[in-house]
Design goal:
alpha+beta; 8 strands; globular
Length: 248
Amino acid sequence: MSGHSKWASIKHKKGAIDAKRGKAFTKIIKEITVAARMGGGDPEANPRLRTAVLKAKSANMPKDNVERAIKKGTGDLEGVDYVELAYEAYGPGGVAILIDALTDNKNRTAADVRSILTKGGGNLGESGCVSYLFQRKGIINYSAESYTEEAIFEVALEAGAEDVSTEGDSIEVMTAPEDFEPVLKALQAAGFEEELAEVNKVPDSTVTLDEEKTRKALRLIERLDDHDDVQSVATNLDIPEGFDPDEE
């Protein structure tokens, strides 16, 4: 589980930069639009949309952006028809990688993902080759500099969280997908401000590589995550404490 927490922290720091240029918001808007198209525009009656809206709020997305995305999904405003795609792959050292994408051009996205994997020392696998190594979980991260694990633990466990752990400067709360919303709301009501909140795939166990392969794998994962059509990337790579992927 710790591998995900460290990757989530790296994503959060990168996401703060992405938000400034709109990339993080664009990905959340896509998810809201697809969720509304599939299950309707009422978050109370659409769990997937409700989760996407919670993620938008955690990213401080303006309410108008959320409402427009919902209307594009329901057809009240003109919007793009996105298709959901999932890829399973192997990275350097054989690490497992799951890639979820939303796209208006399947051929373009498939070609781009394959190209990024090949250039980064990875390769596309067949359906089912690595997905069995992961479970869907709710993940909520807090700054360990701002809060203590004990304080968060008390509220989170009472609200139904599965686990609370600290990795470096991040406190991670793990929940079952169906408990994500009540746990997040309970922590918000208690005054805790999250750094990251999402439902994503988490590995059952992690794989440790040497420093060179770890750096190579992380660079590949970041390139995949940075692609406009890619919504999320999950991996079973273990990231050592204090590891900086940008240092040589």
